[in-house]
Amino acid sequence: MSKTKIDIVNSALVLVGDNPITSLDDQTTQALVANTLLDDIVEAELFETRWRFALNTSVSTFVSSKTHPTGLGVFQIPSGTIRIWNVLERGKSVLGEWEMEGDKLLIDADANSDIAIERTVEPHVAYWPPHFRMAIIHALAAVFCMGLTDNDDKSKLLSAVGDTYRRKARAQDSGQSTPRVVNTSQMLASRRGVRSGNEGLI
What we know:
Immunoglobulin-like
């Protein structure tokens, strides 16, 4: 059966011994906490790890009306981007430097360049893997414990169980693709001092 965010919230409420809600628009403390924190919990989790189920490669369009002081080309980052992991030009990783500035991507490229970004987006709840879903449920339940019951011990226990589900989710997610062929030319270029532009991101 397809899951929704209300299902995530109600599963978390059941874990803390509370009653389910009928809508996230309910005028209840439970709905208020869920509306305030659920999206932040999900976004933080998606930002932290390069989840394959949340990866998306999208074209980045050149912004002709913008001229950056550095002389770098300005490209639009597609909406819904949580984190950029790689920048591609004609399907290959860009070896030169790139950086984000607000919702713009700065890179040594122009209108004739074919730029795309490998990014994390938030998939619909129905596409969350089971162990990732359970990790989010337990993270939210831990928050409910603090906000609704002030039970610090149970909150810590729920967080620990959530961490276990998170580790399982990461292990399963890492096996969702074939091994990549090492690009030796990029490795050589990197050793010669050419930066990939995403140092420290992974």
